Amino acid sequence: MSFNLFIIQALNGLQLGVLLFLMAAGLTLVFGIMNFVNLAHGSMYMMGAFIAAALYSYTGSFWLAALLLVPIMLALGMALDRLALSTLYERDHLYQVLATFGLILFFNEAARMIWGSSPVYMDVPDALGGAVQLFGIRYPAYRLLIIVAGLLVALGCYLLVHHTRLGMLIRAGATHREMVGALGVNIRLLNALLFGLGAVLAGVAGLLAGPIMSVQVGMGEPILILTMVVIVIGGIGSIRGAFYAALIVGVVDTLGRTLLPTLLRNLMERSSADIAGPAIASMMIYILMAVVLALRPRGLFPVQRG
């Protein structure tokens, strides 16, 4: 493999990593902080992609679609919390898994009824349709936008959690929920805001992913599995852990799928390498997760609760 191709695939891995972080950050807020197992988080990614595609088609502006998507996803997430999930906070995780799995089926069928079974495609914005010079290579400007957007969201999440009053309440509610409620804080509203924020982050991930892949029913489940792996590797409840783990998983997965078949061709027949390479590559992130759990059972950056 040439050096330029290696750099391109590394950047593609970084791009996948920031998309995974957008998903993992939202799920970490709900799963890690509220201790709520939300399998429907991938459906928010799918709904965000479909709604963004519809807004883009209607307005003709990618940027206006992005602006309108944020309040829509916030409202959807808060409505989902209030109407379907708020009664499950104190229930066993099994009830949460069953309820949110049912929501996956609901959203998949709703998307199929509204947009149909055929994939929907979004065009890359005209201003970002070209390429930029980066490390001596030409790299698509839109993919670079995804990387920059993900890094900005990571910075925003850090500032929100550690340097705002809302972040203070979120951190306090994660460990001393009853005491925060006794001080007059509306815990139900705080939980709804967390669900809404998680839905916004997932929806933005769907918006950014739309122009580089087809928007289709069921697209949320595969990325949800990767997101769960990211959260386990990074440490449940840790935004910082989600960020670093997402980048690691994105780069390992992308480079593994690119490099392994080439390397195996030096050790076995080409046909066998072409079969074994993708199969092993698809297992690499799970092997990585197993190694991390063996060495650090609470993840790379566990949250200290007290």
What does the model show?
There is one protein chain. This protein is an all-alpha fold and 306 residues long. The chain has helices at 3-34, 41-59, 62-85, 93-115, 141-163, 165-175, 177-182, 187-209, 220-234, 239-264, 270-295; strands at 131-134, 137-140. A two-stranded antiparallel sheet has the order 1-2. A hairpin with a 2-residue loop joins β1 and β2. α1 runs antiparallel to α10, α2 runs parallel beside α4 and α5 (141-163) crosses α6. The radius of gyration is 20 Å and the shape is globular. The chain starts with a helix and ends in an 11-residue tail after the last helix.
Short description:
The protein has helices spanning 3-34, 41-59, 62-85, 93-115, 141-163, 165-175, 177-182, 187-209, 220-234, 239-264, 270-295, and strands at residues 131-134, 137-140.
SSE order: HHHHEEHHHHHHH
Ranges where pLDDT stays below 50 over 5 or more residues in a row are none
Please, what is the average pLDDT? 84
Side by side, the strands of the main sheet go: 1-2
Give the fraction of residues assigned to helices.
over 70%
* Gap from first CA to last CA: 49 Å
Please state the CA-atom Rg, rounded to the nearest Å.
20 Å
What is the 3D form?
globular
Number of helices: 11
Strands, total number: 2
Beta-strand residue fraction: under 5%
Q: What is the multimeric organization of the chains shown?
A: single chain
Main pleated-sheet profile: 2 strands, antiparallel
**Structural class designation:** mainly alpha
